[in-house]
Structures are given as C-alpha cells and as structure tokens.
Specification:
With about 120 residues, this protein is an all-alpha fold. The protein is built from three helices and no strands. Helix 2 crosses helix 3. The radius of gyration is 31 Å and the shape is elongated.
Length: about 120
C-alpha cells in the first residue's frame, strides 16, 4: 500500500531524526521506516516508534504553549459575550413583535399610495 503525502512527510522527518539522533545511515533509517509502515519487525523499527512518539510530544508541547498563551484572550472574549447576553436578557424593551398593533400593521404608518 503506497504512503500518503502526510505519511511521506512524516517519514522524511523521522528519517532525519533517526540519522541525526541515532547515527543511522539514510538507507537504514528508510528501511526501518518502511518496515514499521508495513508492520514488520527489523533491527531499528523500535527507534522509529520512539522517535515518532518523541516528535508528537514535542509538537503537542508547542501547541499547548500556544493554547496557554491564548487562554487569557479566550476567557476575556467569553466574559464579554456573557455580559452582552445578560444585558440583552435584562433590556427594558422587549425584543420581538410589538403587541400594541396587529402583526400586519407597519410600524412606520400606513403605506404610501403607489403612483
């Protein structure tokens, strides 16, 4: 089964990590990645799993940092929306159809005659 584009991109990242962190040759790293993709066992397939897990943890940590940085803004926006909704609920004028005239009658007075 051929690899999809995201899988190929992940394989390139993993190959780089295996070469730089574990001293594998590019060929050894590529073979290990293909073996892991096929579900086969090889001398370096355990390193592929370990590096994939490490890369995922690093990416998740960066994403969490961004989320934590945005948390105050999200909380302020939520508070503003709550305040707006409370103001709408307690507004002195009822929202919706006026009850002092029939539904068909225009709030702007009678219609002008057509020319």
């Amino acid at each position: 089964m051929p690899m999809t584009r995201p899988e190929i991109q992940a394989a390139v990242l993993l190959r780089h990590r295996l070469v730089t962190r574990h001293g594998l040759t590019s060929e050894e790293a590529t073979i290990a990645i293909v073996q892991r993709h096929r579900g086969e066992e090889g001398p370096h397939t355990h390193l592929v799993a370990a590096e994939a897990t490490a890369a995922l943890k690093e990416a998740t940590a960066e994403f969490r940092a961004v989320m934590e940085a945005l948390r105050p803004a999200a909380e302020a926006a939520a508070a503003a929306v709550r305040a707006f909704l409370q103001a709408v609920r307690t507004a002195p004028h009822p929202v919706g159809r006026r009850r002092d005239r029939p539904a068909w009658q225009s709030p702007y007075g009678p219609a002008r005659p057509r020319r």
